[in-house]
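Dear colleague,

Following up on Tuesday's group meeting, I ran the structure prediction for the two-component complex that the binding team flagged. I've pasted the input sequences exactly as they went in, so you can double-check that nothing got truncated or mislabelled along the way. The structure tokens for the whole assembly follow below. Feel free to forward this to whoever is handling the docking comparison.

Inputs:
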Amino acid sequence: MHRYKFVLYRPIQFLPVLFGISIVTFVLVRLIPGDPARVLLGTRATPTAIANIRSQYGLDEPMWLQYFYFVKNLFHGEMGKSILYKIDVLKLILTRIEPTLVLVLTSVTLSVLIAVFMAALAARNHGRFADHAVRVVSTAGIGFPPFWLGLMLIILFSVNLDLLPVSGYGRTLGDKVAHLILPSLTIALSLSTVLTRSLRAAMVEGLRSDIATAARARGMPERVVFWRHVFPNSMVPTINLLAINIGWLIGGTVVIESVFAIPGIGQLLVRAIFSRDYMVVQGVAMVLACATVLINLIADIVTVAADPRVKL
Amino acid sequence: MIGATILLVFVLAALLAPYISPYDPVTQNTDLRLQGPSWAHLFGTDNFGRDVFSRVIWGLRVDLQIAILGVVFPFIIGTLVGTVAGFFGGLVDAILMRLIDVILAFPFLVLVLSIIAILGPGLTSFYIAMALVGWVSYARLIRAQVLVLKNSDYAVAAVSLGFSRARIMFRHLLPNAVAGSVVFSMSDAVIVLLNGAAISYLGLGVQPPIAEWGIMVAEGQPFITTAWWITLFPGLSIVVLAFGFSLFGDALGDVLGVKE
């Protein structure tokens, strides 16, 4: 169990980063020219509301004291009120978290499935046509703009084949699943290009390794050598690559939610930017940054669980 | 070779846009609304009757600029910061590295969008946001190289000859450290191009009626059921340009002996 000790002290190592995240988001909103109270409340705010926010955030106090108020409010779960929705930002984000979370999870699962299939196809046919085809597809695929790819999938599956809904999110479970297939597939296809390249390289190397040779010498069929010995080892670097790309994945979700009109955090962020709802922008940026830090911790745990040789 | 050819053709097309585009990219013609591809209009026309082919060529100018300027500013800042951090080490290095950790904790696009939210939509805001966020990758790459190189024989020799720190950093270390960043900048150009187009697609970058590929995709979206050509061609152009950068970057890596 001592290999998992890092789960306890790693969050302490994250403290400086979390401190930095709070500073960046704090500074961001205060860089906007003009009276911060008006910036945060919008132009049609009542004098009482302005007085309230002044005292809650200490907006007449020096900067360092304002930051102190900001953090104090954070610890009470207060990120301010949205101008547009008139409710607390954290509550607002929580109501929007489900579609985003589900979208991220299904996209990651799908992209790993696609990447494993493509990489296995390439590695087991190393140097042959399938290998070259996969390499060309994954190199070109990196340059596919996800927002455009999503629209092309809509044309194919929703317009021409009439199989899936064009956009939106649905109310019942089955309806939600139907609405999430195309957006997940869009993100998964984009993400899988990066994964495929690394997975293929790891698999090609694995097939040449002593482990594989030893397994073949014991008379194991090539299929078993590959899936039982080569494949599990090739997954470890892929988990790290997934963790590195998690920020990219979340950014992609923001755009894809807008393409498919999914009411998640990404769409909330884009709408907030248009309506100058700065409290929401600040809150979403902070929540997504913290989520990225948390996912990296989870990736570390999975890596340690997957590979007994890894020590953190 | 293929990559270099694609890039060369695109750069020439961007430079010659006024001469090779058959129609004006912004002039509207209501008689020609939503016409499919034909010999007169290779890529069809959009809902304002504008020639999509001409708009794709003019859009190339903007998107090429996005891919280049969106990489150049982060490259310069990151290279300077990385060289200084790697060379001086100690407190300077520690502070800069923590700053990089914090910036990397944010999802890239989310931080860029937040900065654009503060500065207001537009291409200038996009470049500023890219410069503020994008430098971290270059700084890390250069710093790692400088850390190794500053203990090399020629660097030690330069120190013992009494050369100034600036001279050692920028005349001796930097030229040898920069190859990896140059190769990385090609794959970075792909990401910057996609991000720039995505931000314009969201309506936060280039503003209409300027022709730009991301915005053209957004403008075609309401018509995808009837007029697919408005969205197909600008997106396809992004794919080809990005492919050009990717291939050119791979080839450059082979020539310079840099592994990714």
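Residues 159 and 166 of chain A are 8 Å apart (CA to CA).

Cheers,
M.
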